[in-house]
Amino acid sequence: MAAVSTFVFLVILIHRLCHNSAIDVLSPGSSLSAEQSINVLRSRNGRFICGFYNISPNASTFSIWFSNVSERPVVWSANPLHPVYSWGSNVKLNFDGSMVLKDYTGQTVWTNNVSSSIAGQAQLLDTGNLIVKGKGDIILWQSFNSPTDTLLPTQRINVTTKLVSTNRLLFMMNASGVLDSLGQFQGSDSTSFMAADWGRHIIRRLTLDYDGNLRLYSLNDNGTWSVTWMAFPQLCKVYGVNGRNGIFIDQSDWGEGCRPKINITCDEEKVKFVHLPNTNFYGLDLSAQRSVSLNFCKQICLSDYKCNGFAYFQGFCVYYRMLFETNRCS
Ligand SMILES: *[C@@H]1O[C@H](CO)[C@@H](O)[C@H](O)[C@H]1NC(C)=O
Ligand SMILES: *[C@@H]1O[C@H](CO)[C@@H](O)[C@H](O)[C@H]1NC(C)=O
Ligand SMILES: *[C@@H]1O[C@H](CO)[C@@H](O)[C@H](O)[C@H]1NC(C)=O
Ligand SMILES: *[C@@H]1O[C@H](CO)[C@@H](O)[C@H](O)[C@H]1NC(C)=O
Ligand SMILES: *[C@@H]1O[C@H](CO)[C@@H](O)[C@H](O)[C@H]1NC(C)=O
Ligand SMILES: *[C@@H]1O[C@H](CO)[C@@H](O)[C@H](O)[C@H]1NC(C)=O
Ligand SMILES: *[C@@H]1O[C@H](CO)[C@@H](O)[C@H](O)[C@H]1NC(C)=O
User: Fold this and answer.
1) What's the CATH code of the domain at 111?
2) pLDDT, tens digit, for every residue of 225-245?
3) Quick one: a GO biological-process term for this protein (predicted)?
């Protein structure tokens, strides 16, 4: 009998130990280390993992990623451009709520900048949001407020947040917006789009990819992703697309945007329109006319010195004043 209860006790203990190695909270004073792959936080639904993600045998980033997903599972990184050595690096939650990532030399690589008199624990939520709680469960810091290249459902983007792709392309909105749990993105301006497989119980991410295109993905049962919406269906290069909500290269700041490579003149002889099939521009300053010919639409654009291009579909003419930040006659 004693042997049996010892066995049961051991089984329970082992179960508890296993369970404790996969928890969703980190208590003040504790840390996660880079060298032990089991030393991670797991969201309660098992969907997300937070810890050190190996980007090469010796380098890792403090990240959040999808569990059970084969392709591109990372959704957030504290130090995407400054990976740490995978041996001897760690991230610690201090009693003041500060989370500090140190590399093996002890040098601080990243911190969440929290300094609170009373801090609680850090928790990886089912949404994929890593939060640090303070007294009365107020949120002192959350990873959702500093996205890298991906937005998850319920994660809000606004004028102060931006998506940064791995090769430093940026996506920003001059408004706030959120992807809901059904797969619809709604901005506080007129920006709105919907997943082709709109509906419940689908795991999604909205990612600014390496090519500068913004894509909405749904997770397949086999752990791969399907694209269910993308900002630019046909363009292979979208750098330089500009306006209120733009994707552009990091070197220029938000106010400046991109500059066209050429100086566009007002000389009609020298102006040529280029046909861009299957292209649309969202949220730009524009005017429109109905029931006009293609040639008339072109003439409206040519005669308006601010016009930088037009869209034409079955008599419907829309002309753009803000394709580029600079006007055509600058
Ligand atoms: C992950 O995969 C394991 C084994 O295939 C499965 O038991 C578990 O339910 C999966 N978790 C999620 C969140 O899909
Ligand atoms: C990783 O680090 C070890 C120890 O410093 C070194 O021997 C090994 O060559 C490194 N591996 C790579 C792929 O850089
Ligand atoms: C913390 O503060 C530093 C210095 O002001 C800043 O560079 C860094 O982006 C901040 N980190 C976060 C997570 O806000
Ligand atoms: C934008 O979001 C950040 C958190 O991500 C918040 O601190 C800030 O107040 C928001 N700004 C606006 C203008 O809503
Ligand atoms: C995974 O599932 C998707 C959708 O069902 C399918 O199109 C794709 O071929 C599958 N991929 C693999 C590697 O099985
Ligand atoms: C952003 O929005 C504000 C207020 O609507 C507007 O004044 C400003 O010109 C916009 N900025 C850009 C770059 O479109
Ligand atoms: C465009 O104009 C600016 C200022 O007049 C000039 O410095 C620049 O070289 C011009 N660029 C091209 C491509 O002609």
Assistant:
1) 2.90.10.10
2) 999 998 876 443 344 444 444
3) response to other organism
Q: Is residue 118 part of a domain?
A: yes
- Cα of 243 vs centre of ligand 3, distance in Å, is 28
Mutate to test the pocket of ligand 4, among 76, 142, 160, 254 (most ligand atoms within 8 A of CB): 160
Identity of the amino acid at 246? G
Overall number of domains in the chain: 3
Whether residues 170 and 135 fall in one domain: no
32 contacts 49 by C-beta, under 8 angstroms: no
In a domain? residue 5? no
In angstroms, the CA 327 to CA 307 distance is 8
Q: Give the β-pairing of 309-313 and 316-320.
A: antiparallel
Asked which of 5-9, 95-99, 124-128, 248-252 is least confident by mean pLDDT, the reply is 248-252
E strands of 213-281, at which residues?
Answer: 214-219, 225-230, 246-249
Do 177 and 149 form a contact (C-beta atoms < 8 A)?
Answer: no
Nearest protein CA to atom 9 of ligand 2, as residue: 58
Counting ligands in written order, which one lies closest to the CA of residue 98?
A: 3
Q: Residue 210's closest CA among 248, 245, 171, 166?
A: 166
Provide the residue range defining the domain that includes 97: 18-144
Q: Answer yes or no: is the C-beta of 263 below 6 A from any ligand 7 atom.
A: yes
Among 206, 231, 256, the domain-final residue is 231
Please give the pLDDT value at position 57: 87
Shared domain for 182 and 296, answered yes or no, is no
pLDDT over threshold 70, residue 310 = yes
CB 181 within 8 A of CB 198: no
Asked if residue 259 belongs to a domain, the reply is yes
